[in-house]
Each structure stands twice: as structure tokens, then as C-alpha cells.
Amino acid sequence: MGLYLSTPNTEKLSQDGENENLRYGASAMQGWRTSMEDAHAVYPDLDCSTSFFGVYDGHGGGSVAKFCAKYLHQQLIKQEAYSSGDIGTAAQKSFLRMDEMMCGQRGWRELAILGDKKDQSSDMMEGVVGSSKSGEEGHDEDWSVEEGPHSNYEGPKSGSTACVAIIRNNQLVVANSGDSRCVLSRKGQAHNLSKDHKPDLESEKERIVKAGGFIHGGRVNGSLNLTRAIGDMEMKKEKSLPAEKQILTANPDINIVELCEDDDFLVLACDGIWDCMSSQQLVDFVLEQLKTVSPITTVRNSYSWIMFNSGMNNAFMHGFRQARKLHLYRNLSIYH
């Protein structure tokens, strides 16, 4: 969805950082789109024992992706399940909460602000990449109801995928809604930790048809080529059905993995990458790059290689390395 430029915008905005357990790098590039529709969130210190990384691939505009990058991790740590250690349940509730928050006067106002950025080059990281010190920075108050001319606003017609990785000690929790993908490199072998939510999946087709939708031309209701996303409220209007059973749902798949010394790195990437490269091809390329250059240079080099060989514009990668004393040192690089 969206318009394209005659030549890609290849300007990259990059950053890197670290804490006592991990290092990370991030790079953002607009590519062929007329505006930047995607966002990411980087919180290596979400709390004293947890790191959070998320990629959000917007469609129909960038406001929903930016909204998720700004608020999803905040909602995660507010959940009672998060406090009790059930990160998977907390992530699921946070994904569904995004749709609720984007309705009404306040939802409309927040989306209007996020969608009103004029300087894409300077704003690509603003409100998107989190503080390397604490996920609490900018922590919002309870989502209060506002009255105004848009009090009956039913939410955005645009939407975004969400694929997040939450690391607590040696546990990795992956939550995914949409066709972005999370891949773990373990001893050089690619392991998919998420499922691409596409219309050709029988389980997705069944839910769509039961909710009154249809698949045409490989697209949901002839429009979207993915079956789960945050936003897209036009496809979530059946009031007799819960959020998880709507034509389109934000409900994520949750995958929980115990990290070990065999783990090399983790990749989070938008569908544009996987349309042109297999999971193993990208893992092989990253491994080769990491032999000779630093993680942040690998991010930049890999991004350029992907851009000019696939014609796409988004990727996100994390790396893990084992250190002595059985302490899992995570050498984190991130593409977006």
C-alpha cells in the first residue's frame, strides 16, 4: 500500500548503544516509499532485568506504527501479568490494548499528532527509539477519556504490523501480529520464531470467513495482504465478536524460547526482506559480515545490500554472544 518514489531515499539514520548485558545498533531508511511508514522501539533497559525491541511496519500511513512504538512497551509494563512474570500474557494484552487506545477523542488526537510530522529525515527516530537508560521515560499516565468533537472516533483505517522481542535473563518472548518475522540464528541455522500471518493460512482463512470476511486475489476483503495487524479498524466492526475473532485481529502469536550458548543473534524484519530473502540467506549474510566488521557497521552494510538487491526498505537484527562464567552476553545489533 502507498505511493512510491522514482528513486529510493537511501539516507540512513543510525544509532548504537549498550548496557552491561548487550550492545545494539539501529538504522532506519525510508527507501522507495514517499514517506516513512515504519517505526521501531529500542529499550535495552525496560526495567532492571528486561530488554524490549520492536519493529512496526505501517501501511496506509505511519501514524499507527509510531503510536505502537510510543505506547506498546509502556502498556506492557503496566499489565498485572508483567509484574507476576507472565510476559507472554502481558504482551498479548498490550497488543489488543493498542486498538482500544486509538479510539475516541484522545486516540484521534494522538494519531493526528504522530501523523503530522513534516520533516521525515529528522523525525525518523523521534518518539520511536527509546532511551537506553529506562523504558520509563515518557511513561504515560492512565489512558484517560477525553471529550471533544472526535469522541465517537472508531479508530484508524490505516494500520501496522507489530513484531517484538522481550528478553528477561535467558528467556526470550516473541510476540507477533502481521507478516513481519523474527528469526533466531542458532549455530548458524535459522529458526523462525514467528509465523507470517498471510491470507493463505487455513487457520487465518477460517477466522476471516466466520467473521463475515473473504479472501480475493490473495488479500483480505480484496485489500490487505496480511491477516493480523494493529489498527485497520474498518475490519474490526463486528460487535458480536471479541477482538481475537474479528476479520482482522491484533491478537499476537506468542513464542517463548530459552536462550543458550549456541545462539548467535536474533533478526526482526518487515515482510519486504522476507519477500526477497529466506531466513537462512539473511542469517548467512549477517554471520559473514560479523566476521570482519562491527555490529553497527554490519547493520549499515547489510541494510544497503538488502536495499539495492531486493528493492525493499526495512530490517531489524539483534545478536547474542556467550561470555564466560555462564553469563549470556548479548551482542545486540538491530536493523530497521
Automatic annotation (TrEMBL):
InterPro entries: PP2C, PP2C_BS, PPM-type-like_dom_sf, PPM-type_phosphatase-like_dom
GO molecular function (one): metal ion binding
Gene3D superfamilies hit by this protein: PPM-type phosphatase domain (3.60.40.10)
Domain PPM-type phosphatase: 23-336
SMART domains to which the protein is assigned, alphabetical: PP2Cc
Family matches, as SUPFAM superfamilies: PP2C-like
The protein's required cofactors: Mn(2+); Mg(2+)
UniProt KW rRNA-binding keyword: no
Keywords, alphabetical: Hydrolase, Magnesium, Manganese, Metal-binding, Protein phosphatase
Chain intervals for the UniProt region annotation (Disordered): 119-157
E.C. designation(s): 3.1.3.16
Transmembrane portions of the chain: none
Enzyme class: hydrolase
Family: Belongs to the PP2C family.
Protein name in the entry: protein-serine/threonine phosphatase
Organism: Artemisia annua (Sweet wormwood)
Organism taxonomic ancestry: Eukaryota, Viridiplantae, Streptophyta, Embryophyta, Tracheophyta
